[in-house]
């Protein structure tokens, strides 16, 4: 398992990173990036903490102790263990303020490793090279090196009104095939945080119009020649008072674009090449595992939201007012409903053909949909409960002023709570939801998985939810005047006999 | 186990029932009530069906086979078995069109039987009689007789603006205590369906202002002298075409008020007497079990709603339109989220001190809250997907008309579906949501458990959700700058070390 | 002006009406229809009431006094006068319980009469007949006869997934053209209430796929040979106690389908024929005027909803509870916002080329959209405020029972209100929103104008709301760094100089 | 009329201002404040622009030309002129990015000046001094000096759970009364932007528990000895690229607290003193006029939101997708409904006893309520339409880079739009809604007028909306079986005969 120091060293590899218009030489010392580099170094170090051994590590099939971010779950207990691992990190990161440590991203290869053969079989133009074996070897290597993998799949927003605009866009595409590998050129437009990762896992999300040349999946080091990372400006407030900037003072996890300037991807780093039909189906499953942790993180976000609302209304003395109590109940219910969807996904999970145990993606998706549908209103509610307290507050410097300080302390204290403690609540809420640091986090949760509308559209493509599928069976029986309680009702009429919706069988069939 | 014939016979016991302004002599033959009497008779008979033995019956601790409505769950498997039992009935009843068969009501005594001692110990004015033993004997008797128990707890709506109005109201109260028992007089204002039950389980929901004399709990036969049932008018359409009236043609489960005209409740039928403080705490738990089945029924309701929406949009050819698909996804998600909350309640259930296994009432309540919050909008959505099809449709008579029939069949057929089959979908939706029969059902679901607002208020009284409770621990740590992932964070500071929210421990402590 | 007696006589004209599977011989005496016939007779008679002369009648350009339903508005004052006329009727009809008296339907010809020439000019296959002059003559005649016009435009729901299904449907279409007129055959699928009208104004709503033969507009008597009216079953409760059935006891305005069995439409009754392009644009304007009164009626509906909520919470003593007060405020605001949109439509109205003054259709549409978006939630809120009071209540017969009556009166009285008066509130709410009579009314409001989704789609086709239109001008200036307050900002750059959104100019341009 | 230069000079008056922990010597040059000082200087200068004379100035009753921010409206035309004046400024300020120029704040004295007598008559402890005449003289003076008045009324958030906590709080209160005036001491906790104003108009919002000593209203110069302004940290980005920071580059309107350290308020600057009952009623009306402009500004905000949504979806090519079109329609409708409520307030305005013409405060309030209820969801919708474009974008520096620039321009161009122009849209949206500068603006709109919940509570205290008031008359008639269309219906029964809701009469009576 990598140490923090090794991780920091790995960042000094000559990678090309632009941030806020400036080229960054050393990520570990530049104020825009040093904070987050420290955060990930601490992440690696905590895996070595003997007190946390059971929580953060496991022993793999070869008897090697590894960080849990490498454990492929084989049963419900494994999935629950992964959940506790993720909960550990999202709590450690103050309710999920950072979203993409290795615990979140390394699983991007789980689906590929579980079933690599189709990635080879469906490839076009790979000259019969054994891509499936390459995938297995690659997995062994990144696991052995305890790499930080970072996915980049999203293409540029160009003109959504024309499918043929996809082909015209400057998206990453194959420009040459050689004996050494594939040469790719063009943009991938969003990733978090390839700037801080060890290897970029790139690929394409199929859209109508995606070409064969745009269809390429691979894994390359972050410092590959020709690879240029262009990050958004950093909102890190390196060196700031943690009273005034409770989160930005810690760091900023950078989102970035990447330009691939005639980048060579060696054949043993190619996962798949050349088949849009493959791109249409298989890679979706790559993200199922990221969605699982996303849904858990969102639940922890929801827990923080609800908790802050409890604290702030206690501090203001408003918690018992009926309208406020009703709003608090909505915030609590938000967290609990998200959590229930996690539990339901675990409870109705299933084994893949190759023995992975997967939480039911339907409930994972509905969990994310529930969060996305309500998060913005819940944040709004929390801010409403704060009143002006999140707009107008003094800084640490003013509290330290001999004239102003004592007067402000008197003005800003609350019910059974001192001014500084109360200000701390407001400042956490302000930083988290009202600064550029905070809104970036909110926007990340809004867009990173899948937008709500897309989740809904994908839902209605599931076999489970077709008019002749299991969910509508009750309605079909009622309309037809059959007794839907009797298992034979529809079967007797020879139409359908599938399990109830939400049952493992139903899911596996649809996946 | 009772048979249907025995049940029907038990209704001919001289009980006093008014319905729609008329005194009903024989419930089993009067058109206002005959349908529902048949429905419950069939309910009893199905328990004798050998094919359904495992699904509907169990063998009790004395080796006696009984209907599952008598099984007190001892572990998670029992709870899941009960869930399947309830799902059976709500499907059998066409998605829960009837809400109060014995499967729903008999569990009103589970909480009392599990822990009868406080009911005796807290009583005032019972002359030291062994009420706890009476409770155990009563339970043995009603179980042996396979009785249909029906609860009546709700008091008259009088003047909610004054707590002292509670004492002034004509609610049921003790007017005399004798050697034989307690004489009670006054109204209980809602029950479903005591008219069709064998025994009335009455009691009081504590409100500020509830008096000692109003605090009385007991179980009496439906035909007790002095007990007058006043039902709302029946919406049953006895003898109607099931094409034209798919549900009202089956029957109507009557809600009713009851006037207790100096009714004697013998001491061995008294559960508790005289202590408003007892009324404040213990009887709440009586309804926890009813809430469990209610939440399951609402989930089955939601499944019917979603299924009907799938069928109707298929029949109209609108299902693939993006806005419609998005609406369908909301309906599907409604069902699945309700179901996830059932699963979460089971998964995080706990044992009571006396060994019952209870689904986590928090998730049961949030499940009901989710349903209540959205059901009306979901029904509205379904109706919107129907368009005029649920307003304007011909009757069976017109379809049979030699001139009109063929022309209507041509006008009303749809995509891959004949006119009659399509009309059947519309008629089911119409009857279920747009007739007096149907809106009564909707209103029952809206009010029977607890209104949404009350669920919210009760939520915020849970210890789990206090500012110093487990849910806010993450927020407390984040505000204080502690690492919330480390179990020692708060504990080290000596404040709190409870389990995560949603964990069994948290629940038991709070209950 | 017609009298009530004359109106009743006009219904006895041999028209062919089916209702609930039965052929109705005399609408004025059959229990399914007699009530509503009386309602419309009273409507006509009230125009003769000298006390209401100024409110209900006007003197036309020929010095003739006529019912206001014939007044084509020429300025804002006329429009306000029409609003008061409509408000009179919707109040008279207990908050709009009937929706389609002549005040609502006769204006279907306003747009045609204001500008008849395009209806002729765009026609195809009319053999050069002077359709525009026919339209003027027709208008003179129906006005002189004080006819009750009833529109029928909607076609059968067949298969919305295929545009070519429109041509295959059994919708009304031309099957022959003769010297006398056009022979049409097929279905029109919804109208309210042609069964009770004097003349049917039929036409087609263009959809992609509408054929030339389906494109025909005309006006024919309700008893035209070959015309068959098929109404839904009546919900009228002729002869019922108005205590028990406050609305259904009055009557039921029937919706109906119509089969045209080789019906001859004489040329002087043809408005337009043969041009789907005409159908695409002009007839939309026919409904602008109906939408105006619909929006006013919906506002009166909203006023009734809010008023009932005030009464019921007063009667229960709950009005001052903060959560209830907040819900009441939402109901009040619902009414006031609907009303504000009426006022805005009048204030920003405009003159057509031919001198009619039209309320701004944008605000009329947004008024309807606001109502449609919220009506269902508002009704749900009202029902929530009622609690069980709308589910369980005794009938007049029980109140008259010597034993039950006094006991029920004691049980059901409220804060400063007797039991009967309180029951009356509940019964009005029950009948209006929870019976088949009431839900039909709700569904009518939901679908009759245009569903919300369609209003939204039509909104985005307005020139006012294009990215280069007036509403986005502020955004364009801000993005470009120009001062949007200066009128010359965009003009100086030669792009656009249109009026502010909501100004008459903007509207006329877009219409 | 003041010039910009005179305004800037007036800020150099020795006032005590803290901002971000630093004492600011010269507001006109310090980077935290220089930008906004320039903004207000330009505001004054524009009033001298001859092209804008009619739009921005008027001639008062003495023949003096003055800025329109001093015009007290006497009829509907005046109110409409004021609306256009406000629209001018909110457009000039890029859709209302600054909220408190003199056009917004000076009207805080309108209500006092219209009717000063009660302010004197209700005073306690003013020694019979002629406060009403002082008010008139004060008005004449501030108008002659073209002062920038800034209100400060809000008190510290202390402990809302105990009314007696109000008296214990360190809020501003009278500590001495002398011949020269009143000595006050303590905090006022929010104002925008007293730091930049000429005179502070202070007072108290009555709450249960407000004491006599806390009840004091006055007007003092911003540099009064003892007055200490404590502003929040500035978010101004003085000197930043307007491409990268389109709004923060212009300036930041500071919110501030104020500590009154034994401040002497001369008697001729006291508006009222000592009577909590006066504080309960009269000062509410002071804010009616600010609410009018607030509601107009919110409508312009809504227009910007809708316009930006049109531009961004055009640029992405998503505008025509049905789900997106439906969302755009919601944004358009949001603006139009806000605007309709402005028009309705003007249309149903009324004259005060002293001849001011006031827009109907009910509709003004409902306009604000509509905005507050939906603004957050509408912003969320806009952000959803943007996708990642508002999270990840390059800076001006990167676009200027010779290697990155051309490649980024290719990657970020859109449908018919270049990369820079498209980025500008995203940057405007980002700065406005996702930076600390932008969220402060959103929070200002959320809290400055009155929170939604308070507006709702105040609504239900209006006589118009009582169960026996005009809005419920229709419901009363319907329930009683009277014809509500006949004016005599209720009057005949001697209960009530008030005008319809929304009529001027109804409003005046209730005010």
From TrEMBL, chains A, B, C, D:
Keyword Flavoprotein: yes
Single annotated GO MF: monooxygenase activity
InterPro entries: Acyl-CoA_Oxase/DH_mid-dom_sf (IPR046373), AcylCo_DH-like_C (IPR036250), AcylCoA_DH/oxidase_NM_dom_sf (IPR009100), HpaB/PvcC/4-BUDH (IPR004925), HpaB/PvcC/4-BUDH_C (IPR024719), HpaB/PvcC/4-BUDH_N (IPR024674)
Keywords: FAD, Flavoprotein, Monooxygenase, Oxidoreductase
Pfam families registered for this protein in UniProt: HpaB, HpaB_N
Domain HpaB/PvcC/4-BUDH N-terminal: start-end pairs: 3-271
Signal peptide region: none
Region (Disordered): 488-511
Coiled coil spans: none
SUPFAM superfamilies linked: Acyl-CoA dehydrogenase C-terminal domain-like, Acyl-CoA dehydrogenase NM domain-like
Residue ranges occupied by any HpaB/PvcC/4-BUDH C-terminal domain in the UniProt entry: 294-467
Protein name listed in UniProt: 4-hydroxyphenylacetate 3-monooxygenase
